[in-house]
Write a structure and sequence with these properties.
This protein has helices at about 15-30, 55-70, 105-120, 140-150; strands at about 5-10, 40-45, 50-55, 80-85, 95-100, 125, 130-135, 160. The chain is of the alpha+beta class. It folds into two domains: about 5-10 and about 100-160, Alpha-Beta Plaits (2-Layer Sandwich); about 15-100, Alpha-Beta Plaits, CATH 3.30.70.990. A four-stranded antiparallel sheet has the order 6-7-1-8, with helices on one face. Helix 1 (about 15-30) packs across helix 2 (about 55-70).
Length: about 160
Amino acid sequence: MASDYSFDIVSEIDQQELANALDQARREVATRYDFKDILVDIKVADGVLTVHTVDAYKFTAVMEIIKSKLIRRGVDLKILGEEKREDASGGTLRVAIKLVEGISGDYAKTINKLIRDRLPKAKANIQGDAIRVSSKSKDELQAVIQILKASPEVKLPLQFTNYR
């Protein structure tokens, strides 16, 4: 029997599920009557989701469709970062949304501190873009997962992998 149990905390985007959700959103936009003969372009490149449409109202409607498809595919909405709106040619609107992936060093320290404050017996080590949490008790590791899922301080989409 192992003396210590552990798991890794990572923040990754499932690219295949993201592509599937955006493909479903494109198909729904193409078939909806309120988007008939209206420019709507949805692209992902270099960690940025770009939505190009005629105005802010249509952008809001497209984002609702995208969010619903992401939820159905099991992709956390926390991957959608800050928006950068800009006017495009012909009076249209282009919005670039940064996709959030990876745990930065400062944010890893915040998560590490949160774990140490609530469960001092659990040990959290920062390892690049991941945080390894270890403990002698599986119950403590489950408590760490519950704390991180429920905490309002955690604004990243977190996955818990490599549980052993």
